[in-house]
Automatic annotation (TrEMBL):
Keyword Cell membrane: no
Gene3D superfamilies: Winged helix-like DNA-binding domain superfamily/Winged helix DNA-binding domain
Organism whose genome encodes this protein: Larsenimonas suaedae
The protein's name in its UniProt record: Regulatory protein RecX
Keyword Cell wall biogenesis/degradation belongs to the record: no
Keywords, alphabetical: Cytoplasm
Length: 159
């Protein structure tokens, strides 16, 4: 019967650069996310900052590229601009950069809200409670109230 021995103290520790590159090989990360992950792996902040600066200079890490990927992925999931903006901010992306990434996506949020509503519901709702349910759904997806009210009026009008 074989078992894994605990790592010995003389096992070479992976460098912060190698750990960051291994993470970036799987998906895009914001600088903030990389800092958190590397800190959790036991690397000192004084060792992490210069490594991340070098990765940015080499073009291996980019908050702009991360924001573009994040926006694209969340639009495909049916999320609205408020939820996407919040997600970017929680991952350490500057508010200006986050808004630029949303604007660069070219998404028509009114149409996106209509599509999200049509995927989830079969009609606009006949009663006030049913319409309120649809509005709450769109709000939970991160759509602004103007998008949600537009979707309620327009999404099912061509049936």
């Amino acid at each position: 019967m074989a078992f894994n021995a605990p790592p010995s103290s003389d096992t070479p520790k992976i460098s912060p650069r190698d750990a960051a590159i291994m993470l970036l090989a799987r998906r895009e990360y914001s600088r903030h996310e990389l800092e958190e992950r590397l800190t959790r792996k036991g690397h000192a902040f004084d060792d992490i900052a210069p490594v991340l600066d070098a990765l940015i200079e080499e073009g291996l890490q980019s908050d702009e590229r991360f924001a573009e990927h994040f926006v694209r992925g969340h639009v495909l999931r049916g999320n609205g601009p408020l939820k996407i903006l919040s997600g970017l901010r929680s991952r350490g992306i500057d508010k200006t950069l986050a808004k630029e990434a949303l604007a660069a996506s070219g998404v028509d949020w009114y149409s996106a809200a209509c599509e999200a509503l049509q995927k989830r519901f079969s009609g606009p709702g006949d009663s006030a409670p049913e319409k309120a349910k649809r509005l709450r759904f769109l709000a939970s997806r991160g759509y602004e109230s103007a998008h949600a009210y537009h979707a309620i009026e327009v999404a099912f009008s061509d049936e």
